[in-house]
Design brief:
This protein is an alpha+beta fold. 35% of the residues lie in helices and 37% in strands.
Length: 193
């Protein structure tokens, strides 16, 4: 899914928003279910996420087991990076919710969103991949871990960037490894705008 401009030398992107998503109790699902059926379902879900990401000009950076990472604001800079990734996050959660209504296997995701500077680069020699690094990536991962099932958490920076177009509810401060006590917001849906 990577577009050609991503395949150059390491670059710093000052304004980007990162999405980290994983599934609740996936490890238990992995050992309890038929491996072929589980992988087929996960592939179907991630393919749906890829279509959603593309719809909102986001880039899937990687999947690792049951985790999905996407970013908006690179390789093309976008003033709407936070809004685009928030739209994608809400669509992904909605996709899972709709899928659960007609599927006996229930999937529940947690999502973290964080905005800030990131560095993107190809890493590796043999099986090289494009990856992104930086505080926004780490913060999105910490927010995803702090989220409840089917919840989207954002940092204060992303919450501010989203503005009134999105409905966000401030939550209590969370103690996040490497970041200390931070005020976080729960992304509920679209706002009045």
């Amino acid at each position: 899914m990577l577009r050609q401009p991503l395949l150059g030398s390491p670059q710093r992107f000052e304004q980007a928003t990162v999405l980290m998503l994983d599934f609740v109790d996936f490890s238990e699902m992995a050992v309890a279910r038929d491996p072929a059926a589980l992988v087929a379902e996960l592939n179907d879900i991630f393919s749906g996420f890829d279509r959603i990401a593309e719809m909102f000009d986001c880039e899937r950076i990687e999947t690792n087991g049951d985790s999905y990472m996407a970013v908006c604001g690179l390789p093309e800079r976008s003033p709407d990076h936070a809004a685009n990734i928030a739209h994608a996050a809400l669509r992904m959660r909605g996709y899972i919710d709709r899928r659960n209504r007609t599927n006996s296997n229930q999937w529940r995701c947690r999502i973290g969103l964080a905005s800030g500077a990131v560095v993107g680069s190809i890493v590796g020699v043999k099986k090289y991949v494009y990856d992104v690094f930086g505080p926004a990536v780490n913060l999105a991962a910490r927010l995803e871990k702090a989220a409840a099932p089917m919840q989207v958490l954002t940092d204060a920076t992303t919450g501010t960037l989203l503005g009134p177009a999105f409905a966000c509810r401030p939550r209590e401060t969370c103690s996040l490894k490497g970041f200390g006590e931070l005020r976080v917001h729960e992304l509920l849906g679209l706002g009045a705008a």
